[in-house]
Specification:
The chain has 145 residues and is mainly α. It has helices spanning 5-12, 17-32, 44-72, 79-108, 112-131. Helix 2 (17-32) runs antiparallel to helix 3 (44-72), helix 3 runs antiparallel to helix 4 (79-108) and helix 4 runs antiparallel to helix 5.
């Protein structure tokens, strides 16, 4: 399983597992918050660039997010269950957020509030991963060291 080249390189260079996972997660989520700036830029090309940067930042963070089940599971037998729960929660957010943002756009008539809320969620997520999530040592699988 690829856990992200950047995170893996950090680990190979002696950075702790926690820091190696949190740096891309927190950094990616913080950079994703630039989506909120798309409401104040002067033209569509700049807004498109900010939306692209936001999505690329989320993609950068996702490799470390998907490695979390293996990093926090008490044993290798629970990794898939934790991954399934994580995937379920992610899909709930993926279903609910377009509905909420669409309703907000309908009420306000613009994308200003939805994009500001989306940027704020990125910041809250970064703070959560930074200060709340505690990683343990990865579980040992048979035949791996």
């Amino acid at each position: 399983m690829d856990r992200g080249l950047f995170s893996d390189r950090l680990i190979r260079n002696g950075v702790s597992l926690t820091k190696a996972r949190k740096i891309p997660m927190v950094g990616g989520l913080l950079f994703s918050s630039v989506i909120a700036l798309a409401v104040i830029v002067p033209n569509g090309w700049v807004a498109l660039g900010l939306l692209s940067l936001s999505y690329a930042s989320l993609t950068f963070a996702s490799a470390s997010v998907w490695s979390l089940p293996a990093d926090v599971a008490p044993s290798h037998r629970q990794v898939a269950s934790i991954g399934g729960i994580q995937n379920f929660a992610s899909n709930l957010a993926g279903i609910g957020s377009p509905l909420l943002l669409g309703v907000l756009k309908g009420i306000t008539g613009s994308f200003v509030l939805p994009l500001i809320i989306t940027g704020a969620v990125g910041i809250v997520g970064a703070l959560t991963y930074c200060f709340v999530v505690v990683l343990s040592r990865p579980c040992r699988r048979a035949g791996r060291r």
